[in-house]
Amino acid sequence: MAEREYERLTRSAARARFAVISAERCSLWLGKDHVLSIDTNGYRESYKRFYFRDIQAVIIRQTDYGKIAGLALGVVAGLLGLFAFLSGHAGHPVLAYIQGVVAALLAAILVLNLAGGPTCTCQLRTAVQVEELPSLGRLRRARRVLARLRPLIAQAQGELAPGEAPARSEPEQEGGSANPTTDGRVEGLAQRTDGATEGNPEEPPIITP
C-alpha cells in the first residue's frame, strides 16, 4: 500500500489566542483529497481530515487584534524608553539599561507584528461542524491558503452554481450585538452542500516535510 504524503500548509499556532505555556497547537497539511488538521499539546496528537468533497465553506473574517496588540506594544515600549532615558539622566545606569533592553524587545515584537499584516479568524465548515483554524491567523496567509484550496475543492465538487451558496449567519449579529474586535469584513469560499459528510479520522498519517 502506497504511503500517503502531506505538504505543510501552515506552521503550528496556539488555539488559545493569549496562551504562552502548555498551549494546544494546531497546524494544517494538504493531502491528496483532503486537508489534515493536527492538534498537539506536547503529549498527544489528534487528527481531523476534511475531505474536499465535504467542505461547504471557508470563512475569513478580518479582526482588529493585530492593531490592538500593536498599539499596546507601542505605548509600553515608548514609556519604557522614556523611563530609561530619565533613569540614565538621574544616575541609575543599571535601571536605565534594563528598561532600555525591555523596550527594545517590545519594539522588535511590534515590528514583527506589523510585518505579519492584518489579523483574522478563519473557519472551515462542513455539514456536521464548524472548525476554527487558528494557524490561519493572518489575512495574507489565509488568503494564500484559500487560493491554494479553491481549485482543489472546485475540482472535487464541481463549480458552484449561482444561488447555491449556503446562507452564512454571523454569530456576532444574533441578538443585535456586534463583536468589537471585528470590522465586519467577511470573505471566503462557499461550495456545494449536497451529500456532504465529514470523513472519519483514521490511523495517524505519515507526514513528510
Topology:
Blueprint: E1 7-8, E2 13-14, E3 25-30, E4 34-40, E5 45-51, E6 57-63, H1 65-89, H2 93-116, E7 119-125, E8 130-132, H3 139-157, E9 182-190
Antiparallel strand pairs: 1-3, 2-3, 3-4, 4-5, 6-7, 6-9, 7-8
How does this structure look, described?
By secondary structure, this protein is an alpha+beta fold. It is about 35% helix and about 25% strand. The chain has 3 helices and 9 strands; from the N terminus they run ββββββααββαβ. The strands form 2 sheets. Strands 1, 2, 3, 4 and 5 form a 5-stranded antiparallel beta sheet that branches. It has a 4-stranded antiparallel beta sheet with strand order 8-7-6-9. Strand 3 (about 25-30) and strand 4 (about 35-40) form a beta hairpin. Helix 1 (about 65-90) runs antiparallel to helix 2. The longest helix is centred in the middle third of the chain and has 25 residues, at about 65-90. Residues about 165-185 and about 190-209 have low confidence and may be disordered.
Q: Which features does this protein show?
A:
209 residues, alpha+beta, five-stranded antiparallel beta sheet, four-stranded antiparallel beta sheet, 3 helices, 24% strand, disordered C terminus
Task: Give the DSSP E fraction (strand runs of 2 or more residues).
Answer: 15-25%
State the secondary-structure class. Answer: alpha+beta
Specify the helix fraction band.
25-40%
Helices, by number, come to 3
Along the chain, the helix and strand elements come as: EEEEEEHHEEHE
- Rg value: 22 Å
End-to-end separation in angstroms reads: 20 Å
Name the quaternary structure.
single chain
Mean pLDDT across all amino acids: 77
Shape: elongated
Low-confidence stretches: 165-184, 191-209
Could you give the count of β-strands?
Answer: 9
Most strands sheet: 5 strands, antiparallel
